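If your schedule permits, I should be very grateful for your opinion on a structural question. I have a record of one protein: its chain in single-letter code and its fold written as discrete structure tokens. Would you kindly read the sequence against the tokens and tell me how you understand this chain to fold? Thank you for your consideration; the sequence and its tokens are set out here.


***
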Amino acid sequence: MKALYIASTGMSAQERNVEVISNNIANMRTTGYKRQRAEFEDLLYQQITRAGAPTSDQGTMIPAGLEIGSGVRTVATPRVMSQGSANMTDRELDVAIRGEGFFMVQMPDGRTAYTRDGSFDRDGNGNIVTSTGYQIDPGITVPGNANGIAISPDGTVSAYLDNDSIPTQLGQLQLARFVNKSGLESLGDNLFVETPASGPAQVSVPNSDGTGNLLQNYLEMSNVNSVTEIADLIAAQRAYEMNARVISGADQMMQATSQLR
């Protein structure tokens, strides 16, 4: 009975949906995290009677065909790249992006990764790095005698050296933006890499080309809404239960058939 298979695809799709929702909830407090959503599509149809098929020599035809679907599948889990709220931290190397840009990060294998997580720090050589120790791109080094690091909205990094009354510019933060942000590939560690679907990175300084500006002493929180996620979770659970009922109903029909004398 095809109903068993069709309902099983529905249960499988809702199981994947719950996995996506649970990952969103788990990352509610992850800096710069962008929530995902599951998208579905129906499977191939069996054409038993095709719409428009002739029914007589006089040109009459069937107005609506008879076709039976094969179920559903999860086709994509795109990220919702909306802006998260800014949370004050009072750390001078915490930076939030207000706009569409991404910080660029130098990976150990030579690739460039991208992140919305601006919780930066300094390594033993004074290089500004991410929380996992990867240097930002372009690299900026803070001297050991630097006092009071300042990061302007346009990405200029400066600091007072020793007892200087005039700040010294240390470097310039740059941001990258993409035509299709949802096409980026997730690496974990709050990092993304570009793909053919995302298009190449368009690099510019903050406050230009739509990349957005920077906000020092703040971090961008995740854009996960707990109420929305719980509502989606309840809907997924109910859809799973209804597909399970279809399987139970189909099983009872098969059992009744097998008991015929």
